[in-house]
Design brief:
The protein has 370 residues and is α+β, with helices and mostly antiparallel strands. It has 2 domains: 3-82 and 155-220 and 309-368, FAD/NAD(P)-binding domain (3-Layer(bba) Sandwich), CATH 3.50.50.60; 92-150 and 221-306, D-Amino Acid Oxidase, subunit A, domain 2 (D-Amino Acid Oxidase, Chain A, domain 2), CATH 3.30.9.10. 32% of the residues lie in helices and 28% in strands. It has helices at 14-25, 42-45, 61-84, 102-117, 127-133, 155-168, 274-287, 333-348, 354-359, 364-368; strands at 3-10, 30-33, 49-50, 95-99, 123-126, 143-147, 151-152, 172-174, 179-186, 189-194, 198-206, 222-232, 241-244, 247-251, 257-260, 264-265, 295-306, 313-316, 323-327. Strands 4, 5, 6, 12, 13, 14, 15, 16 and 17 form a 9-stranded mixed sheet that branches. Strands 1, 2, 8, 9, 10, 11, 18 and 19 form an 8-stranded mixed sheet that branches. A hairpin with a 2-residue loop joins strand 9 (179-186) and strand 10 (189-194). Helix 1 runs parallel beside helix 8. The longest helix has 24 residues, at 61-84. It is globular. The N and C termini lie far apart (46 Å). The relative contact order is 0.19.
């Protein structure tokens, strides 16, 4: 089986599927190749938080990108449901970040002040207001920050919706097909070699997450293992996503609560440790005491790709004609996936926003030193 495509996307996580969806939507002939099942890596492990405001107390290119990407979700979710038939589980009921100490409360006020200055909604809650808004929370928090425009989706369903949408647009998807070699500029084309086939393309996009073997050696990606747990209470306990020191709790549309996540840099195995589960469940129950009676449902681990500066790589691979990369999104892959797909499609058409092209370039460190 051989073929020629306008673009080949290597990597079937949420980023690769978003890129394939946007390119196929524009009428290109796209091949998406995944070495395992679609969405079987970090995309299936993510809790699906859309926390565009959660951790930013100052402006940055990443903050701007995150806000733009979050703004796409309401209409994108409807579009994907129409094209793919898959409901992404999009919910926009806000995120509440809690403070246990005066120092944490000061930090939350700093975030709120910046977010308001940027035109975003950010509400500081007193101890009483926290208890009134989420009545099942422990009563020992000094206050909180409520961000009503942040939300969540089902990460696995979003990935599947992008993939199915790409297929409906005419893209070809190959699962369980490991790429063994990149073919660079063979007869004026790029391409990939698999175990039993050759595929050629005009443009090649690498979206392989923490697996950075196809990237230049000076493009650093650190794998970070994260463990999560899901529990199922008998009745809804929280409405908003809750974020506190040591853990977060994400109430899903089907009644589950996802509790995450540990952070283990440099680890690439997906084994879940007793220590990690114990930490998450203990901290979650301190935050939400009624979890004591919830049913323990499932636990898992995912490997997230982190860059040195925390910004993703979205751009041309230096020194490689027609080869691009979209990776290194770390904890924000789900949040940033819509705009990453659009930006990559724009980049391949030569019309991407210059500030993002510069800010997320693979060789940005080199240029910063000049």
């Amino acid at each position: 089986m051989n073929g020629h495509y306008d673009q080949i996307v290597v990597g079937g996580g949420v980023i690769g599927c978003s890129v394939a969806y946007q390119l196929s939507k524009r009428g290109y002939r796209v091949l998406l190749i995944e070495g395992d099942a679609i969405g079987s890596g970090a995309s299936s492990a993510a809790a699906g938080m859309l926390g565009a405001q959660l951790e930013f107390s100052s402006d940055s290119i990443l903050f701007q990108f995150a806000r733009e990407s979050r703004a796409l979700f309401p209409e994108l979710s409807k579009e994907l449901k129409e094209v793919s038939g898959i409901d992404t589980g999009f919910i926009q009921k806000g995120v509440m970040k809690l403070a246990s100490t005066e120092q944490q409360l000061i930090k939350l006020r700093e975030i709120a002040n910046f977010q308001r200055s940027a035109g975003e909604s950010a509400i500081i809650l007193s101890q009483k207001a926290v208890s009134l808004k989420e009545r099942e929370l422990a009563g020992d928090f000094l206050g909180g920050l409520f961000l009503p425009d942040d939300g969540q989706v089902s990460a696995p369903l979003l990935t599947k919706a992008f993939a199915k949408g790409a297929q409906e647009n005419g893209a070809v998807l190959l699962e369980n097909t490991p790429v063994t070699e990149l073919l660079e500029q063979k007869n004026g084309l790029n391409g990939v070699k698999t175990t039993d086939s050759l595929f050629y393309c005009d443009q090649l996009v690498i979206a392989t997450g923490s697996d950075s073997k196809w990237l230049p050696v000076d493009v650093s990606i650190t794998p970070v293992k994260g463990e999560c747990v899901s529990v199922r209470p008998d009745q809804p306990l929280i409405e908003s996503t809750i974020y506190a020191d040591g853990c977060y709790l994400v109430p899903k549309f089907d009644g589950r609560i996802i509790i995450g996540a540990t952070s283990l840099p440099g680890m690439t195995d997906k084994r879940v440790r007793v220590k990690g589960v114990h930490h998450l469940l203990t901290r979650a129950q301190q935050i939400l005491p009624a979890l004591e009676y919830a049913q323990l449902e499932h636990f898992w681990a995912g490997i997230r790709p982190q860059t040195a500066d925390g910004f993703p790589y979205i751009g041309k691979v230096p020194g490689k004609q027609g080869i691009y990369a979209a990776t290194g999104h770390y904890r924000n892959g789900i949040l940033l996936s819509p705009l990453t797909g659009i930006m990559m499609a724009d980049l391949l058409e030569g019309k991407a926003d210059k500030k993002y092209v510069t800010g997320f370039a693979l060789d940005r460190k080199k240029h910063a030193l000049v």
